[in-house]
Design brief:
- With 179 residues, the chain is mostly helical.
- It folds into three domains: 35 residues; 36 residues, no CATH class; 88 residues, no CATH class.
- Helix content is 40%, strand content 3%.
- It has a two-stranded parallel ribbon with strand order 1-2.
- The longest helix has 35 residues.
């Protein structure tokens, strides 16, 4: 087949040149359409800021090299800090992990929300159905939401699981899921 196609052209260089022009125009028009689509997508995305909230048990701001930690480096967190809005005045809603997460997610004082004991840290006391979380609030505002890491507010088969509490994505290491 290639030999038949090559006979149409006076020489092989002419055929390569024609193929190059065809590929150029195909790429040009596909890029042009993609650029138009990406410009629309970018203008939509630029209306809303990306939000990354790091909530970690037993992590102090002093444990981050951008805030003076000298014994080890946290370059990825430092890069986020350098290009972000920082909120430096905050307190946890409870002294233990599960109630603290519950107050953070609901905005309710520990005395007014469902998760009050650290037994919830393993998912024993899930967030009840109908709990309004900031995950749901962000979804209503058009955001894609996700949780990575320890959840502790409901097992996969309960209403407290993150996918039932306003999050589109959830990843947790198997070690924590098994507990």
């Amino acid at each position: 087949m290639l030999n038949l196609e090559m006979k149409r052209f006076k020489n092989f260089k002419e055929m390569k040149k024609s193929i190059a022009y065809i590929l150029f125009f195909m790429v040009f028009f596909s890029c042009k359409n993609n650029n138009e689509n990406s410009e629309i997508a970018n203008s939509e995305m630029n209306k809303k800021p990306n939000i990354v909230f790091i909530f970690s048990d037993d992590l102090s701001f002093r444990d981050i090299s951008a805030y003076g930690q000298k014994h080890y480096k946290t370059p990825n967190i430092d890069a986020l800090i350098a290009t972000s809005t920082r909120f430096t005045q905050g307190y946890t809603g409870a002294p233990e992990c599960a109630p603290s997460r519950g107050t953070l997610l609901t905005g309710l004082h520990v005395g007014n929300q469902h998760i009050r004991l650290n037994s919830s840290a393993r998912g024993f006391e899930p967030l009840p159905d109908g709990t309004y979380t900031w995950g749901k609030m962000f979804q209503e505002a058009g955001y894609k939401t996700g949780v990575i890491g320890k959840w502790g507010l409901g097992y996969k088969d309960t209403k407290g699981h993150p996918l039932n509490q306003g999050f589109d994505y959830h990843f947790e290491r198997a070690l924590f899921q098994a507990l």
